[in-house]
Design brief:
Glyoxylate/succinic semialdehyde reductase 2, chloroplastic; oxidoreductase; two-stranded antiparallel ribbon; nine-stranded mixed β-sheet; alpha/beta; globular; 11 strands; 15 helices
Length: about 350
């Protein structure tokens, strides 16, 4: 699968040219970690951003801070959520509210959707009073939910049958990156919509990849989350093993954080895992859902994934202990339970 992206490497300050178009209104060093598919000028001022009406469906852990960042940037934002009270903080910041996805897409030029799972994403887009019922030719629908490729293709077809454009853009990142505008967008679908949505993706994220046909973005996100879930399960085993042999797990986390296997996740989650505290940034039930979908993807192409399959079983056990809404780092509790059963 080829990435249809242009990578912009760091350029020493003395060699950086002065901006020559609105696209380069930001310092050139910003391009060192953004991925663009087009060098066409895109809106960047508050007036230009505000001229496009933006809809946002889903005010959960991720959707709410993403919509808030759009508001802070001066965008005209209309929000919807099944539980209306979750929209109230956004309305307090200047957002408009509509009572159905249909009303949002009818009122807005470009609508983003951040839903919890494939079933919710399909229902919000294609169900009664769904986004498809209100959207029309010339508008765009960007689904930033994590779903399987089949669900994304289904939503795409129904959106495009109305004459509107569709882009899947699942994100890599959890609550804090969403709050900080540091998400990574894995996009696929209509290239024209990708380019039109680019300035808004850049408000909510630090980089974006264009991956071609619908389904590729969903597949990439599932692969990434499969790796992440497996890493967390192994990390949990390491914490418990270090404790079992008399090592200080805090020192183990520090050692890991300074070595070749370091990942920000370890130093961020490790200290709270040692204290058996799991503040929710990415719910465990969503991690298990993504593991399940990734395993289904692997099965569809006859790819063996034994490590991910074993990790998935741990997340399922953790869910059975009532940890679904805890952070996915609570998977360590499944290993603790297994240890206590053996002793």
């Amino acid at each position: 699968m080829a990435l249809c992206s242009i990578f912009c490497p760091r350029i020493p300050v003395r060699f950086r040219p002065k901006p020559i178009s609105p696209f380069f209104s930001k310092p050139m060093f910003a391009l060192s970690y953004r991925v663009y598919s087009s060098l066409q000028p895109t809106p960047s001022t508050k007036d230009e951003l505000g001229s496009v009406s933006i809809g946002f469906l889903g005010m959960g852990i991720m959707g709410s801070p993403m919509a808030q960042n759009l508001l802070k940037a001066g965008c005209d934002v209309t929000v919807w959520n099944r539980t209306k009270s979750k929209c109230d903080p956004l309305v307090g910041l200047g957002a408009k509210y509509k009572s159905s996805p249909e009303e949002v897409t009818a009122a807005c030029d470009l609508t983003f959707a951040m839903l919890a799972d494939p079933e919710s994403a399909i229902d919000v887009a294609c169900g009664k009073n769904g986004a498809v019922s209100g959207i029309s030719s010339g508008k765009g629908y960007v689904d930033v939910s994590t779903v399987d490729a089949a669900s994304s293709i289904l939503i795409s077809k129904q959106i495009k049958d109305t004459g509107a454009l569709f882009l899947e853009a699942p994100v890599s990142g959890s609550k804090k990156p969403a709050e900080d505008g540091q998400l990574i967008f894995l996009t696929a679908g209509d290239k024209l919509l990708y380019e039109k949505a680019a300035p808004f993706l850049d408000i909510m994220g630090k980089s974006r990849f264009y991956l071609g046909d619908v389904g590729n973005g969903a597949a990439m996100k599932l692969v990434v989350n499969m790796i992440m879930g497996s890493m967390m399960a192994s990390f949990a085993e390491g914490i418990l093993l270090s404790q079992k042999v008399g090592l200080d797990p805090n020192v183990m986390v520090e050692v890991v954080s300074q070595g070749a296997i370091n990942a920000p996740m370890y130093s961020l989650k490790g200290p709270s895992m040692i204290k058996s505290v799991y503040p929710t940034a990415f719910p465990l039930k969503h991690q298990q859902k993504d593991m399940r979908l990734a395993l289904g993807l692997a099965e569809s192409v006859s790819q063996s994934t034994p490590i991910a399959a074993a990790a998935n079983e741990l997340y399922k056990v953790a869910k059975s202990y009532g940890l679904s809404d805890e952070d996915f780092s609570a998977v360590i509790e499944a290993l603790k339970a297994a240890r206590s059963q053996q002793s």
